Every structure is written in structure tokens, then in C-alpha cells.
């Protein structure tokens, strides 16, 4: 049987406006450094977020929920992404926006459940029989196509593997040749091949070759010790959603399936509740046996006021279940009507009973100096040059509007500077684009002043 790793189904994030953020910027005591890791000010919220990170890492947080609440543009989304950075890539982090649940094809609760399972990781440790070493030779042996015709096919592949202890030459099945090609294995790479499944894993380039062209993307690994043929502990990090997908569509990710095969007959199916229950059962069994370890991650629901009463109820229940991630909500709403109800008004549009179990982190508006610092950071990240005077104009404008508005003015201001054949953004560029583009507050004001001129 041909086997691959379970493919990761992690979502790629749309974070282009947050690319300057690299972490929470705390010192070793958990105190916020005024400007660090791309974050400026908002010290209390950052320190609170740091405690949340520690609790997640020490697994004291599963099934709990946090709410980031504050006015628009006060860094709620930024801090949530900083939490993700601090957690590292071994802890799953699944971002979503409240409005994502409204789809004409998928049920609201189904969308939530999927994202829930994207935020729960499983670390599987297995001892596997492998051939491991640095590739010294890789030769596909061709034969005439047995079906006739002129084409040739690979009958087998000869591979040489070297470790610190010795070398071995193997004659392998052509299906493994495909896996070798998929992993882009070349001589000089360190790989291992699982004996039972034939899965190939490229671990990196042997550090004997570290001096040739130094491609930054390349990872150099030492020549493996021990024999070529041995038992090896293999660790795989997957999410429950990865498992759902792998088992619903047998063509991908058959590795976990081979483990789960004892319980489930692979069939091409949708991800159903039944499938999820089966997977949970197997997962629990592995946890009991010590083969796997649960890694509760983070489900981040931005703009949580967009959820309705039905999804809130569902969420509340899901948080109570034995396997639950940490949920982080964010909202800029004050008291408002809970969606899906006629007239129930609640703080942040969240039902009181759910609100009651949240830890709430508040974000506050920025000072003018902080706004200038953040705008400067963004300018550097976007590769723009900005005059001190222009920066101070933006700072002042920011106190009257929002941080997001002034950050967004940077790009058009850079354009007008370029039109005027300058490389530096000047005060006049800011004034020009400031007059062209309205911020939300002024726009709303104009609307109320000129009610009669607009269509209702
Ligand atoms: N403390 C900060 N340090 C550096 N950059 C920040 C900080 N706070 C916000 N930003 C940046 O300012 C912009 C707006 O912030 P963000 O989107 O996080 O606000 P928000 O609180 O989520 O607003 P909204 O309620 O409208 O969603 C983003 O580009 C963000 O990266
Ligand atoms: Mg936001």
C-alpha cells in the first residue's frame, strides 16, 4: 500500500495589514515592553494575552474562552494574531470571522464545528520500522512497457542510504519512486522510508553539503546515527479536522487511516457527525494507550457580534464537551441586539450566560504618540519613506478618527508622492488623500446631515 502523511488543512490567513506583528513583545517576567515584536502600547491587554498564552501552553485553558473588547482599531485582531505567533506552529490556531457561518450551502453549526476541529491538535507518536540515511544513489531502473508500445516504465528503483555506521543499497517498488519524486528527493538528502507503508519523508539536506549554494529555505540535518534499518519514533502533528478530511476522502492522507483502519472501512463519504464520532473514539483510544496526546489550540472568532443566538447556543454547548479548544472572541460593539432575536439587548451582542464564562480583555484607544509609532512601523514594513511632519499630521488625524483609517491612508499617500515624483511622503500628500477619502465617523456624520438627499 502507498502511504502519505495526512495533509494539513490549515487555513492560510489574510493578515497583510498585520505583517509587522511578530509576537506579544513581553519580557521574561511577562511585562509588556512599550514597543516590541511589532506591537506598541496597549500594555495591559498584551500582558493579559501573555497569561492566556502561558495557560494554553500549560494546558490549563481548554474549554475556556476569552473576549477581546474595545473600540475599532485598538489592536484586537493584532493581539489575537500575536497570540498565535507566541503559541508557535505546534499549537493549532484557527482564525475565522463571525459572518463566515452564513453560507447558503453549509449549515451554520457545521461551519462552526469544522473550525472547532481545526483548532484541536493531536500529536501522534509511533515507533516505526524505517530505512534512514543520506541518499548516496538514486537510480530508477526502466524496462520495456509490458503493455507493448514504445514507452518505458520504471520496474524498480535502486537507492543507496548512508548513516554514520554504514551503508545499504535497497531495491524498491516503483510506487516508492513516485513518493521519492513527490518529496523531491535527490542524492545528498537525508530521508527515511517507512518499511510497512512505503511512505517517504525527506528530513532535509545532509550537512555534508552545507557549504555548496546556501539556499536559505534549505534545512541541513546531520548524518543519521545507527543502522540504516532500524526502529524510529515518528511524531506527527495533525488536527481533528485533518483526520476528518483524510478519512472522508481516502485518496489523500492514508497514514492515519491505516491506524484507524481497524475500526473504520474507508469509503468516500462526506464528513458526517457519525464519522466525527468514530474518529473521536479512535482518538480517545490512542490517548488512553499513550500513543497520542491532545493539543488544544485556539479558535479565534473575530467580529463575534455577527454570530446569532443559534450559533451562540451551539458554541456554548461545544465548549462544555470533553475535547474543546480555547476560544478567543473579539468585538468592537457595545450593547447591541443579539442577532437572531427580536429585541434582546446584551453587552457586545453576546448572550449573558455565555458572556458570564468569558475572561474579558479590554483594549483602549491609542495616544497620539502611540499612533505615530504604529504608523511608522507600518511605513517601514511597507517600504515607504515618510517625513516627520507628515507622521505628526497622521498622528493628529488618528486621534480624531481611528488608527486603522490613518494606517490605510499610507498607501494612497505614497501614490500621490510618487505622482509628484517624490520618494518621501510629505504633509501635503496626507492632506490631499485625507480630503479624498473619508473615515467612518465623518461619513456617518455627512449621512445624518444630508439625510434628505439619500435614498432610504
Ligand atoms: N498596539 C499595536 N501595535 C502595532 N500595530 C497595531 C497595534 N494595534 C493595532 N495595530 C495595527 O493597526 C491596525 C488596526 O488594528 P486592528 O485591526 O488590530 O484593530 P481591531 O481592534 O481589530 O479593530 P476592529 O474593531 O475594527 O476590528 C492593524 O493594521 C494593526 O496591525
Ligand atoms: Mg479586528
Give a short synopsis of this structure.
Belongs to the RuvB family. It is found in: Nucleus. This protein is of the alpha/beta class and 456 residues long.
**Which structural class matches the secondary elements?**
alpha/beta
Summarize the main sheet: 8 strands, mixed
Tertiary shape: globular
Binned, the helix content reads 25-40%
The total of beta strands comes to 19
**Bound small molecules, deduplicated:** adenosine-5'-triphosphate, magnesium ion
Low-pLDDT parts are 1-5
Number of helices: 14
User: Kindly, what is the distance between the CA atoms of the first and last residues, rounded to a whole number of angstroms?
Assistant: 65 Å
Radius of gyration: 27 Å
Strand content: 15-25%
Function: Proposed core component of the chromatin remodeling Ino80 complex which is involved in transcriptional regulation, DNA replication and probably DNA repair.
Keywords: ATP-binding, Cell cycle, Cell division, Chromatin regulator, DNA damage, DNA recombination, DNA repair, Helicase, Hydrolase, Nucleotide-binding, Nucleus, Transcription, Transcription regulation
Subcellular location: Nucleus
InterPro entries: AAA+_ATPase (IPR003593), P-loop_NTPase (IPR027417), RuvB-like (IPR027238), RuvB-like_C (IPR041048), RuvBL1/2_DNA/RNA_bd_dom (IPR042487), TIP49_P-loop (IPR010339)
